[in-house]
User: Which sequence fits this backbone?
């Protein structure tokens, strides 16, 4: 009887426990740990990142993200998510597996201290993007981007990244990955639910909009 019961429990849908999107939970201890990262050590470790993310954390390759000026807590979470396999990418999984929690905090604090990209391009008219950022879309249940990412794309503690100045192709890739579920390390599925509702054209315009924005 006991065996039958445990078999039933094993196959009952209620027993399927959803995998958490991330192992990082922002407790006061975790926040403190990142805040106390050693920027000097981070700077030394960052020499191995420069080839891809740019000498000053500003990438020169369109599909590689810039890291300069990003919130330390966000960068830390991404590095741990790559290390834990919660966010998948061939290059970054192997990079992050080689980093300790302390290394990740040191790097995160160093990149936060660098000035973000100042992309000098002519402001295009990006009507769809402007509406989505400021007003969202009530019919499709898309909240305005600014309510989380800030009016200047500056991000918001602890886990909402800055978007201002981000590389266009990376931005498109990552939103598309949330949309298909290939990227699923967003706690509460916040970005998956939103990007499911965005068209290809919306995503393209949003990427251009944030690329030319300054914090
Ligand atoms: C061989 C190239 C390469 C190297 C070296 C590399 N990265 Fe990356 N990194 C990438 C690519 C490509 C992505 C985008 C991956 C994706 O789409 O998930 C990325 C993504 C990231 C992200 C996520 C950014 C975001 O906005 O979510 C962080 C954080 C990061 N890298 C940090 C680092 C750090 C720190 C180092 C050095 C210890 C490093 N990377 C070394 C190529 C590289
Ligand atoms: C409810 C809050 C919320 C709203 C509204 C929101 N976001 Fe996000 N966004 C987040 C969070 C949280 C993350 C980080 C999730 C993670 O850890 O992967 C994120 C991540 C992102 C990223 C990935 C950044 C990177 O460096 O990889 C992009 C791009 C993005 N959001 C764009 C948008 C756009 C465009 C909109 C409006 C259409 C929007 N977001 C609306 C909360 C929000």
Assistant:
């Amino acid at each position: 009887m006991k065996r039958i019961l445990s078999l039933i429990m094993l196959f009952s849908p209620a027993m399927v426990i959803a995998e958490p999107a991330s192992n990082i939970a922002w407790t006061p201890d975790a926040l403190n740990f990142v805040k106390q990262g050693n920027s000097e050590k981070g700077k030394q470790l960052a020499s191995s990142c420069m080839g891809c993310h740019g000498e000053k954390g500003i990438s020169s390759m369109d599909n590689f993200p810039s890291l300069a000026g990003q919130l330390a807590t966000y960068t830390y979470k991404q590095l741990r998510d790559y290390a834990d396999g919660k966010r998948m990418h061939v290059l970054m999984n192997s990079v992050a597996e080689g980093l300790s929690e302390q290394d990740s905090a040191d790097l995160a604090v160093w990149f936060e201290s660098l000035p973000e990209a100042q992309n000098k391009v002519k402001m295009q008219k990006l009507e769809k993007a402007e509406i989505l950022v400021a007003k969202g879309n009530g019919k499709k249940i898309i909240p305005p981007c600014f309510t989380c990412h800030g009016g200047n794309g500056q991000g918001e503690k602890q886990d909402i990244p800055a978007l201002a100045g981000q590389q266009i192709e990376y931005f498109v890739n990552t939103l598309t990955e949330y949309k298909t579920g290939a990227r699923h390390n967003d706690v509460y599925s916040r970005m998956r639910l939103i990007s499911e509702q965005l068209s290809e054209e919306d995503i393209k315009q949003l990427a251009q909009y944030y690329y030319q924005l300054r914090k």
